[in-house]
Each structure stands twice: as C-alpha cells, then as structure tokens.
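pasting for the record
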Amino acid sequence: MQGTDWFLSKRYTPERGASRFAFLLLLALTSAIVYVVAIFVPVYQGQQQMHTAAAEIVERGAKQNLTDADVRAQLHEKVRENGLPEDHTIELARDGRKLTASIKYTQFLRFPFYTYKWPVEIRVQDLGY
C-alpha cells in the first residue's frame, strides 16, 4: 500500500516532454515571424521614404514647370540616396500642368534558402495648381 501512496503522491505523468514541445514550437514560430519582419520592415520604410520624396519632387516639378529631364534627374538622385536598386525605370507623363511619375524596380529579399523578388511601383502625381 505504501508503494501505491508514493506513486499517487508524486503525481507521475508520462507526458513530461509534451509542454516542452509546444513551447519550442511557439518559440520557433515567434523567431520566424521576428526574422521576416526584420527583413521586410527596412525595405518597406525605404519605399515609403522614396514615395514621400518623389511626391515632393513631382509637386515642385509641376508647380515650377520644370523640364522632364530635371525632374527625372532629381528622382534618380533620390533613388540613389534611399539605397534602392540601380536597375529602376522612371516614367514621366504630362497632361497640361499635371505631372505623373512612375518609378518601377524589383527589390530582392534574401532568405536563407530563397530569394524573393518583390516588384515595386511607386506612382505619384500632382495637378500643378
């Protein structure tokens, strides 16, 4: 009888490692999410900074009636300053005083076993008023 009392008092559970597996799985999932966020956030911030800068340049170009070559040169300079890929295309379109700019490039996100090609298009326009 004492052997049985000892067995019941120690609360023997055969699934001792089950909670560790769930914890390790949760830890791995959390680490993967943090890693992906750490890869995507700087790229997204660079895109937003470029969008803001392009909007300012296009607004100034429309209001001051700058030539397309001047606007394109300023946009190329901002692309270089923001560290975006060199193989980008800049398209400008005018309709009266309205100026529209489109910047297209492919951002490469490198993961341990895969490189994701993220196509990006930044489109801004100003009515020139």
